[in-house]
Amino acid sequence: MGKPKVVLGVSGGIAAYKACELLRRLTESGHDVRVVPTASALHFVGAATWSALSGKPVSTEVWDDVHEVPHVRIGQHADLVVVAPATADMLAKAAHGLADDLLTNTLLTARCPVVFAPAMHTEMWEHPATQENVATLRRRGAVVIEPAVGRLTGVDTGKGRLPDPTEIFEICRRVLARGVREPDLAGRHVVVSAGGTREPLDPVRFLGNRSSGKQGYALARTAAARGARVTLIAANTGLPDPAGVDVIPVGTAVQLREAALKAAADADVVVMAAAVADFRPAVYALGKIKKKDGQEPEPITLVRNPDILAELSADRARPGQVVVGFAAETDDVLVNGRAKLARKGCDLLVVNEVGEAKTFGTEENEAVVLGADGSETPVPYGPKEALAETVWDLVVRRLA
Ligand code: CTP
């Protein structure tokens, strides 16, 4: 099998320079990349750069190398087309099927998955015209990733930034791996919690746990690549924001509960992958707790935190909402898992065995997904991403 063929479409926005990094990632990871910039993209980054980085000729118009019929061939032979940055104008052209240059022709002839990474000013992104074009493209099966929030060109900040190229690459990798299968979470809003809560004791200390957040982030990334609108509630993770995902940082269990209930209100799926502390110190000391010579330390009194998963499962924000929990167990994994599934009232429970060297902070995981319907899906030891895909497969079946 040859290298996967990727077409990198670049439209005319200042973020075009970030597409150089995406191109580099794609070529270095063994993809055969053909860059198709628009004429206006060349105002930002010249043809020489694209050509040198891709090792291929670069053209913007259908009139170059006409004997090779590039306006048809490039799209027909592609395994993936990614447009980054996609301007408001490019999204409009793609939604309406215009074909006035090589990139728009390529989009019409491509039968492979297509990813758009929009970048523009917030007003342009929020304009009903753009939003309708995005909805049209998504309905037709394209993955349009949400822009990131942050500094825009000039003095403005808001939603509209091109996500980090490394993270766009991650989406491309996953979409390519799925092949021509439809983005089956398109039109769905999924909420994922990740990381571990920290319950403060005083201004410098907290009760925490060893969850890295990697499994939750893998769930968020795979959901975005399958077309979902994703809200990621991140408890103390320090991981880079995945492309196309709204990240809500939280610290404590109480903050996580508040964010989860709010996001769940219009969600189709809620996945509680975060390790939530069951207890918090009853008293928060406003000043640092000091040791006193000759005195034993004061015992720490704990109080129960709310059980967020149980609450979300019991009061579903909408009918048919699918709720997924995680269980970390050290002994009698399956028996405890079944009991926990019943106690929490969720639809699916991902049970994994944990220990000091197992699961926490690693790239791999091994689990069994228990269903409230009695099903049992073992997921062999492998990347956290593979477990995430299985979870979404099981969720999609329940949504349908
Ligand atoms: N969870 C939650 N709220 C809590 C505690 C846990 O929503 N206060 C969620 C976790 O996000 C996870 C699931 O419940 O999806 C199971 O977490 P786990 O810690 O294994 O279960 P516990 O209820 O804490 O059970 P125990 O510690 O007794 O095993």
TrEMBL record:
Reaction equation(s) it catalyzes: N-[(R)-4-phosphopantothenoyl]-L-cysteine + H(+) = (R)-4'-phosphopantetheine + CO2; (R)-4'-phosphopantothenate + L-cysteine + CTP = N-[(R)-4-phosphopantothenoyl]-L-cysteine + CMP + diphosphate + H(+)
Co-factor binding details: Binds 1 FMN per subunit.
Region (Phosphopantothenate--cysteine ligase): 190-400
Keyword match Chloroplast: no
Molecular function via GO: phosphopantothenate--cysteine ligase activity; phosphopantothenoylcysteine decarboxylase activity
Residue span, Flavoprotein domain: 5-170
The protein's name: Coenzyme A biosynthesis bifunctional protein CoaBC
